[in-house]
Amino acid sequence: MAKIFSIANQKGGVGKTTTTINLGAGLARLGIPTLVIDLDAQANATSALGIEKTEGKSLYKVLHGEANAADMVVATSTDKLDLIPSEVDLAAVESELAQAENYLTRLRDALAPLLAAGKYKAILIDCPPALGMLSMNALAASDHLIVTLQTEYLAMEGLGQILGVVDQLKAAGAGDKLSVGAIVMTMYDVRTNLSRQVVEEVKTHFPELVMKAMIPRTIRLSEAPSHGKTIFQYDIHSPGAVAYNALAKEFAIRFALK
């Protein structure tokens, strides 16, 4: 049975999508069949994997019970890495789901047949940069929350908010199996005291959660998505590729994916 991971942070620009696609590609390169779900209406993960946004090829209809998740899956140019793309229509789901029955568990129910098919070992959900209805659905469907945390001032503040949401979901009975699985430190700059201080502070509070692999702030990681490529396709020898390769290996061991 696949393990489902929500990669989330209510702040934008913290390396969430970059981590989703490159961790997914890293796991696939290790031979782990992986599915990325782009749940953000901006569709950045979709374009970063070189897939065109196509009307009707997202989870919009699936969340309304009008289509099957398996029919939305497309292959990417990385072997063993598939994608359920996003499209602009997903933005409307935020308000529409609020009126629906079982509004917090729509995604969990929609993914059940896909899980039962047993094709994937890991499913990574790229959540929107807001803790709205789609993010809540993603968390309620997940086994683990993976928080991407930029090594900057006030990082801990955002972390506290998203951990509070996990507690709320559990209290509502919607996130029964959800746990906080890991914290991935992103945009790490070894040259600055601030980066090191933030990492140390987070480790002090959550020593078991912080992944050893730190994702550096690099131009190559920023450039790759605009070419529709993962960092491994764009520059496999870059520090970003080395870091995501290390993260994928650490991730596979931590969550027993191999």
List its salient traits.
single chain, 258 residues, alpha/beta, Rossmann fold, seven-stranded mixed β-sheet, 7 strands, 14% strand, globular
Task: Tell me about this structure.
There is one protein chain. It is built from 11 helices and 7 strands. By secondary structure, the protein is of the alpha/beta class. Strands 3-4-2-5-1-6-7 form a 7-stranded mixed beta sheet, sandwiched between helices. Strand 6, helix 7 (155-171) and strand 7 (179-186) form a beta-alpha-beta unit. The longest helix is centred in the middle third of the chain and has 17 residues, at 155-171. The mean pLDDT is 93.
Mean pLDDT: 93
Structural class: alpha/beta
Shape type: globular
Overall structural domain count: 1
Measured on Cα atoms, how large is the radius of gyration? 17 Å
Terminal-residue CA separation? 12 Å
The low-confidence runs, each spanning 5 or more residues with pLDDT under 50, are: none
The CATH class assignment is: Alpha Beta
Q: What percentage of the residues does DSSP assign to strands (E)?
A: 5-15%
- Order of SSEs: EHEHHEEHHEHEHEHHHH
Spatial strand arrangement across the major sheet: 3-4-2-5-1-6-7
CATH architecture group name: 3-Layer(aba) Sandwich
